[in-house]
Write a structure and sequence with these properties.
The complex is a heterodimer of chains A (555) and B (155). Helices cover 40% and strands 14% of the residues of chain A. In chain A, the strands form four sheets. A five-stranded mixed beta sheet of chain A has the order 10-9-13-11-12, with helices on both faces. A four-stranded mixed beta sheet of chain A has the order 2-1-3-4, with helices on one face. A four-stranded parallel beta sheet of chain A has the order 7-6-5-8, sandwiched between helices. In chain A, strand 9 and strand 10 form a beta hairpin. In chain A, helix 17 crosses helix 21. The termini of chain A are far apart. Chain B has seven helices and four strands, in the order H-H-H-H-E-H-H-E-E-E-H. A four-stranded mixed beta sheet of chain B has the order 2-1-3-4, covered by helices on one side. In chain B, strand 3 and strand 4 form a beta hairpin. The longest helix of chain B is centred in the N-terminal third of the chain and has 12 residues. The model of chain B has no long low-confidence stretch (mean pLDDT 92). Classes of the chains: A alpha/beta (555), B alpha+beta (155). Chains A and B meet through helix 1, strand 9, strand 13 and helix 17 of A and helix 2, helix 4, helix 5 and strand 4 of B. Bound molecules: flavin mononucleotide and FE2/S2 (inorganic) cluster.
Chain lengths: 555, 155
């Protein structure tokens, strides 16, 4: 192995690439060569570093200097000043108040984070299995296969208190135990990488930046529950993720970490990729199973649960990407280590995709129990341009809103539940006073109306009714009683729908009514949108045949 | 439905993905990747080779947004309408494109050159609002003015 004095980690996450990261890397490589430094400075193409707002990014080690928003013409200056003369280029560095030359750990965006799931993201080259292995990769798998019985693995996960990161927060160890206790030769492990929340990309980042973490977690799960095969169900909209996971599978097989007789332990397990095809409901576990079977992705009635009759009617374990990514850490460092992070009932960390009206958007991983205020103001650097915080949307189309009066709420499963919202899968979108809550509720409901699969009546017929009322309200035709109508219809849909999509479809509406009822009222009574978002102009609606119809006014 | 036509390209895909029922979606993905869309006669062919009724295949194809049964325009413009983009004025960006091209979302220009679509989260929320052109070029931090500059590159 060659030793280099300097490592230049260039982010090749999807967002930095699309911001021109590749051009910068090529320019940098050319400059390094022409300065004759190719034996001293090594360029490492890493996965996502998280602060996507600042891309294309580069971190230079051993100093930990962070360069942001790079363009090809910056390469020459960095090589000449920093690599040759040892003087970091201040002009291109991430500014942190009070620090002359801030390093990665001194920048607030990074300082408050705790990285377990994203521990390798932005550090290693995701297309190189040896880099993963050099960072303690596959140690947990080795430990499991050589010194632990399947039941002991399940027990360790139980002890850790890990909860599913796909949205509902179900205890992972408990789920593993159910599947492990089934008497069947053919069991399956599925990774849910469908990432349906429109406005979040946590799983994408793991898949693209550290695919081996996921594979290792899944193989360990396969061993623990006694499965023969695993499937990764990933969105077709993530081509780079598909490519990197496929490459990781190939490398893992070549290293004897996947396939038959893994590490000579007698345990055999293989993993295949299945691509989704653009249907939000396929994130629901039973719909996802139908989709893997090649069918329309409609949900099934539960019970039976997947743990008893899932894929091909066999016992099936299904977990989210981030859930699996936690597993190698728990096994390698122990349940006790994991439990020290987070709160007693919500241990560990959660990855959030922080976006919207906040200064530094990007992907963050924080210990559970952190307050929303810390996330928005310390990590995210506050609200831009003199605007003020109005609310945070959490949990996507199944979630709700956290208003300013709850800024100090602890981000854990119970606290969020207590104000009528959910943790969700990690979407966290910040809004300032220029966003209208009724408009946002309408936005989410439009989404669920379009994504409802049509199998059960309450969801298929009920959500369009709610949408109609919201459309009426935002075009100045709201009527007294509309709010109560929304609440009642919403509750009925939640109680009677077949799957989680319908059951949670009204959450954004109910949650915004709960905290911003006055906004609904000014739309309805004063025909005014307080944030001037809705146009408040009566619209002629179209019926199914494209004919214009007028909404009937009740006198 | 029976078919006598030979489709070596499709045969190759079928050999790779297998003929079992659960391969159907993978087969459709591969065909669409090859041909750009799913032509009717190919679906008929797949139906007879995989021994799956055409009605069932049609049910699957139409269930998923990703599958297309008609040829796409030369340039496909996808405007992200995910939440992160939405709160950063994706609607304004969309409106600017609609005015520039003279079509609405979901339509194709008369000359068949551009089609405009709304999509959900391109996974680049940090750079919202975002559009993607031809499925590979992603542009972020757009404004209604900037997006027109971008589109002028696609002639
Ligand atoms: C409409 C709907 C969409 C869902 N989308 C996702 C998703 O995109 N990703 C995910 O991991 N779980 C999603 N889920 C949750 C899954 O059904 C399932 O609970 C989860 O994959 C279990 O994994 P976990 O225990 O590790 O969280 C969705 C559920 C519903 C009802
Ligand atoms: S919401 Fe537009 S890229 Fe995620």
């Amino acid at each position: 192995m060659k030793i280099f004095r300097t490592h230049a980690l260039v982010c090749s996450g999807a967002q930095c690439l699309s911001a021109g990261g590749n051009n910068f890397k090529d320019a940098l490589s050319a400059e390094i060569n022409s300065a004759g430094l190719q034996d001293e400075v090594q360029i490492v193409e890493t996965g996502c570093m998280g602060s996507c707002e600042m891309g294309p990014m580069m971190v230079v080690y051993p100093e930990g200097t962070v360069y942001i928003k790079l363009v090809p013409s910056d390469a020459a200056e960095i090589v000449k000043e920093h690599f040759l003369k040892g003087r970091p280029v201040k002009r291109l560095m991430w500014n942190a108040s009070g620090k002359e030359f801030p390093t990665l750990s001194e920048i607030p965006f990074f300082a408050k984070q705790t990285k377990l799931v994203l521990r390798n993201c932005g550090i290693i080259n995701p297309e190189n299995i040896e880099e993963y292995i050099a960072n303690d990769g596959y140690l947990a798998l080795g430990k499991v296969l050589t010194s632990m019985k399947p039941q002991e693995v399940v027990d360790e996960i139980k002890k850790s208190g890990l909860r599913g990161r796909g949205g509902a927060g179900f205890l992972t160890g408990l789920k593993w135990g159910y599947v492990a206790s089934q008497q069947s030769g053919d069991k399956y492990v599925i990774c849910n990488a469908d990432e349906g929340d429109p406005g979040a990309y946590m799983d994408r980042s793991v898949l693209e930046s550290d695919p081996h973490t996921l594979l290792e977690g899944m193989i360990i799960a396969g061993y623990a529950v006694g499965a023969i095969k695993g499937y990764i169900y990933v969105r077709a909209e993530y081509p780079l993720a598909v490519k990197r996971v496929a490459l990781a599978l190939k490398h893992a097989r070549a290293f004897g970490l996947l396939g038959s007789n893994i590490l000579n332990s007698g345990f055999s397990f293989d993993i295949a990729i299945r691509m989704g095809a653009g249907a939000f409901v396929c994130g629901e576990e039973t719909a996802l199973i139908n989709s893997i079977e090649g069918k329309r992705g409609e949900p099934r009635k539960k019970p039976p649960y997947p743990s008893t009759a899932g894929l091909f009617d066999k016992p099936t374990l299904i977990n989210n990407v981030e859930t699996f990514a936690n597993v190698p850490v728990i096994i390698h460092k122990g349940a006790q280590f994991f439990k020290k992070i987070g709160t007693a009932t919500s241990p560990g960390t959660k990855v959030f995709s922080l976006a919207g009206k906040v200064n530094t958007t990007g992907l963050i991983e924080v210990p559970l129990g952190i307050t929303l205020r810390e996330i928005v103001f310390d990590i995210g650097g506050g609200i831009p341009e003199g605007h003020s915080f109005k609310g945070a949307l959490i949990g996507g189309p199944s979630g709700g809103v956290v208003p300013a009066e709850h800024l100090d709420i602890a981000i854990d499963y119970e606290s969020l539940d207590s104000i009528g919202t959910i943790m969700g899968s990690g979407g966290l979108i910040i809004m300032d006073e220029t966003s209208c809550m009724v408009d946002i509720a309408k936005f989410f409901l439009k989404f669920t109306v379009e994504e409802s699969c049509g199998k059960c009546t309450p969801c298929r017929e009920g959500t369009p009714q709610m949408l109609k009322i919201l459309q009426r309200i935002t075009s100045g035709e709201g009527m007294p009683g509309d709010i109560e109508n929304l609440e009642r219809t919403g509750r009925i849909i939640s109680r009677t729908s077949l799957c989680g999509l319908g059951q949670s479809a009204s959450n954004p509406v109910l949650s915004t009514i709960r905290f911003f009822k006055n906004e609904y009222e000014s739309h309805i009574n004063e025909k005014k949108c307080p944030s001037s978002v809705c146009d408040m102009k009566p619209k002629a609606m179209e019926n199914k045949n494209g004919k214009k119809i007028r909404v009937r006014k009740i006198a | 439905m029976k078919t006598d036509k030979k489709m070596p390209q499709v045969d190759m895909i079928l050999r790779r993905e297998g003929l079992s029922r659960d391969s159907l979606i993978q087969v459709l993905h591969a065909v669409q990747e090859d041909m750009g869309y799913l032509p009717k006669d190919v679906l008929v062919y797949i139906s007879s080779k995989m021994n799956i009724p055409l009605s069932v295949i049609h049910g699957v194809v139409t269930f998923y947004n990703f599958f297309k049964t008609a040829k796409d325009a030369e340039h496909v413009i996808m405007v992200c309408m995910g939440t992160a983009c939405y709160v950063k004025n994706a609607a304004g960006v969309l409106k600017a494109i609609e005015e520039y091209l003279g079509i609405k979302a979901g339509e194709v220009t008369k000359d068949g050159k551009y089609s405009l679509r709304m999509v959900r989260c391109l996974g680049a929320c940090g750079m919202a609002p975002v559009i993607s052109v031809d499925g590979k070029d992603v542009y972020g931090r757009l404004t209604p003015e900037k997006v027109i500059e971008v589109l002028q590159k696609y002639k």
